[in-house]
Give the backbone structure.
Amino acid sequence: MNRTHAPDTDAEQESHNIIVLAVHQVLIRVAWVFKTETVIMPAFMDHIAGAGWLRGCLPVLNRFGQSIPPLLLSEKLRNARYKKWTLLTSSIVMSIPFLVLAAIWVTIEEKRQPWLPYVFLMLYLCFFSAVGINQLAFGTVQGKLIRADRRGRLMSIAGIVGTFFSVAGLLLFLTDWLEREDGGFGLIFGFTGIGFVIGGLSVAFIKESADQASPTKWAIAQRFRESWQTLMHDTGLQRLAIVSVCFSPLMLLFPHYQALGRQGATIQASGSDLMMWVAAQNITVGLYSLVAGYIADRFGNRLVLRGQLLVGAATPLIALSLASTPGDNTLSDWYWVTFAMLGVAPVTLRTLTNFNLELTTPDNHPLYVSTLNVCIAVPFAAAPLVGYLVDAIGFTVVFLFCSCITATGCVLTFWLPEPRHDQQPGSHSAE
């Protein structure tokens, strides 16, 4: 079987599904932009607590949720007759933590409750557990229904259209909401939750033929054993896992970029500052998606991944430079460039998934995607330590160290296989 073809599609059905999946991603993106991990979530944590170690808990809960639950459910998804229903359900479940947060925020008068940071962290973990299953389902549906050399087109369409609507939403609503006395978080979280519900319902329009179903035993140890054996026997996956681990430090720093930007400021970041940072990041997500999708379809994902890691390695350095540049004794006028560069992170995660899908046949996609997610998550165990070190020794050493690791990942891409050039999925595993 040629790896560029999905087994469950003809041209007309594939085009229909590209449109539906793009609409789904656009709707999820518009909802997601109001809870951006680099700005809104750490700003909310600072609003209710403020400690660096608590801010540092966000990345570890983020990646734990996106790695362990998907791994445990990978076999169940593989044996499901229709993959799209898992995608639909997980999208709607993503809404629940934010709707609960919105309800809590609008009902309590004193916002700095001692219990609130811990409730927030629990809901945050639940949310990203649903996100992890959602991303696993999306990768599996995409691998089943869309050919490898058209997945870049899906990424480009969803990226550029999603950017237009998400930035429009920011301009219309976010600045005003953030300027409210309570930070506007009730409205922000409510909008996010409703958006995830609408995005999930769009999945019902996917055209998907049924797979042969088989019962799945709930065997936790077996899932980890299968994942480990897969990693040990596929050298292509091993190399991709090492590169992905090197990419992880860029995301470890997510909660700290907004804190770095405000470090030397004589005033607090205003709602318009935060909105500009979010908008800058989301505009570049669209631009990165457009460029990455075109190059990936034409030349393969390895070249795209190399360029993305190069941008990722430069981001902490640019952030340190801009944060040390005074701008009228307040926030640097150019600090938004940092968040523009951070737009490469979500596109890189999609590139890693698309690369991973080409390493094997579609029936193994859930296992491969979930295995790579676990590898990406391993460095996140150090996230609270990173937050503590930021408070203890400052931003500079931590940011420089993370930049060096990501740069190492960029160099290691020269040893990755290019699955697009192989004739059979998995042919590289015998190297």
